[in-house]
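Message: Study each token:
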Amino acid sequence: MPALARTPEVIRIRTSPPHPAAYELGAKADAARARMQSTGYRRSPPPEWVLTACAWLAGIAVFVAGWTLVAKLGGRIPDPLTVGAAAAKIYGDPFYAKGPNDQGIGWNVLSSLKRVGLGFGLAALVGIPLGFMIGRWRFLAGMAAPVIALLKPVSPLAWLPIGLLVFKAANPAAIYVIFVCSLWPMIVNTAVGVRQVPQDYLNVARVLQLSEWKVFTKILFPAVLPYMITGVRLSIGVAWLVIVAAEMLTGGVGIGFWVWDEWNNLKVEHIIIAILTIGLVGLALEQGLVLLARRFSYES
């Protein structure tokens, strides 16, 4: 007996007719869409640099407002207008020289940068090759691991008395402190970069019987370069932080000594100008190395 075919049951839903205003809104939307298609107009978000600039300006405005409030409530901190007037006078003649201990802020900044450059350069000459060797040979990495773990956490200023004892002069002692504090980030980051090189690359180099110099120039150096620049970036930041404190203790010409000298003269507005100058120079160094790191970054 043939099975009875089932017909699907249709349930009718009663809906109310659309509101007359809906037809009007739909017509307006269709007209606006047609107008946009005919003119090619599209509302696009603002460029990224506009948002970044607005964020920077908002941050600076909040900082200045907070500074003004603290100056009015505290009484001992000069307000931004007082500091601005003093800054106009100081930056108006930054390179005057009236004696070995009375020089403009420009000469002091250049003296500090010279010390940082010397100590940082010596650290790069020692730390980068050492980092390549530690990352390349596991036995050497095992030898260096306890020494780095022991000395890396030591405060850079703790090395200053050793520098004064060895060199018997303040200027080379400050350069020595910069050398020590800049050494560890370069060694560690370079060694980590060498360890990140795929083993397949080194196996191919072994099959092709490449010399160690070829392995370094063709495989290791291009792959490790982004890590190495990261270590350089960290080192220059630490070096610029340390030189200010080292110059406060050693004296002479430098932005750190200038800050301490202005404190002895109770010129608080000059101290704030020095703080802002140190920050601007550090920001310039940081951004320059960030651009360099982006240039040699190959990560997607």
